[in-house]
Design brief:
With about 260 residues, the chain is of the alpha/beta class. The protein folds into two domains: about 120 residues, Rossmann fold (3-Layer(aba) Sandwich); about 120 residues, Rossmann fold (3-Layer(aba) Sandwich), CATH 3.40.50. Helix content is about 35%, strand content about 25%. Strands 2-1-3-5-6-4 form a six-stranded mixed beta sheet, sandwiched between helices. Strand 1, helix 1 and strand 2 form a beta-alpha-beta unit. Helix 1 packs across helix 10, helix 5 packs across helix 6 and helix 5 crosses helix 10. Pathway: Metabolic intermediate biosynthesis; chorismate biosynthesis; chorismate from D-erythrose 4-phosphate and phosphoenolpyruvate: step 4/7. Keywords: Amino-acid biosynthesis, Aromatic amino acid biosynthesis, NADP, Oxidoreductase. One of its GO terms (biological process) is chorismate biosynthetic process.
């Protein structure tokens, strides 16, 4: 029987999840159906319940529903608990399971570039949900020090307070986005600056060896500035592929090779 899968969000037209899951399935000889589902902003829970009641096997969740998906789950993986957000759902023994594969997707995308994460010092720009979801996997992959830079320090403070007990092997720091400085192996842009077209200024006293932009498919002043310094750069399509690979492995028990789809 062909498994029924979907990605749910609002908006949803822009999602590339179906093409990725069909590509994985074709490569691995698995039959599946994978659709986009637009959920009303006030009808997410009903949409999810209906999907699984009609025989759905698994569902990916995109903006703005990841926190609502987290709240719906009966069982959460450790990384979903830490992220307080869920992007992958499945049913087992009548219970709704939830995971967050975004952070591992980022880690796998970075490693696919042959950038090392062992003993690294990482600066993450922004303290929103995207940052919350990636800290635990980055530390588990070897990051030793992560600094969170945000416009308002209270948001970064809250994030560190929530997460530091989960990653005792790493040092978590914070700074104001307007006062960027220091030396890092990797800078990750998790702000919405690229999406909103805002200018993000990287001062000369900020030194870094690699730059990763979580967004993809749009002009990025962050990437432009990193390229001007001659450092290796990458955009978020790899992270999208990586999180999809992780979700596919959860549902089908076999993991596609990320490098074949980048």
């Amino acid at each position: 029987m062909t498994g029924q899968f979907a990605v749910i969000g609002n908006p949803i037209e822009q999602s590339r999840s179906p093409e990725l899951h069909y590509a994985f399935a074709e490569k691995l000889g698995i039959e599946l159906s994978y659709q986009k589902r637009l959920a009303p902003l006030d009808g997410f829970e009903k949409s999810v319940t209906e999907f699984f009641a009609q025989g759905g096997s698994g569902m990916n969740v995109t903006v703005p529903f990841k926190e609502q998906a987290y709240a719906m789950c009966d069982v959460l993986t450790e990384r979903a608990q830490i992220a307080k957000a869920v992007n992958t759902l499945w049913k087992k023994d009548g219970q709704l399971f939830g995971d967050n594969t975004d952070g591992q997707g980022l880690v796998d995308a970075i490693l696919a570039l042959n950038w090392s994460l062992k003993n690294t010092r990482i600066l993450i720009l922004g303290a929103g949900g995207a940052t919350r979801g990636v800290i635990y996997p980055l530390v588990k992959a070897g990051a030793k020090q992560i600094t969170i830079a945000n416009r308002t320090l209270t948001r970064a403070e809250q994030l560190i307070s929530d997460l530091e007990s989960s990653v005792p092997e790493a040092q978590l720091n914070m700074m104001q986005l307007s006062k960027l400085s220091g030396e890092y192996d990797l800078v990750i842009n998790a702000t919405s600056a690229s999406l909103s077209g805002e200018a993000l200024v990287l001062p000369s006293k900020l030194k870094f060896d690699h730059a990763y932009e979580m967004a993809y498919g749009k002009p990025s002043t962050f990437i432009d500035q990193a390229k001007a310094r001659g450092v290796p750069t990458a955009e978020g399509f790899g992270m999208l592929v990586g999180q999809a690979v992780e979700a596919f492995a959860i549902w089908h028990g076999v993991k596609p090779a990320i490098k074949e789809f980048l």
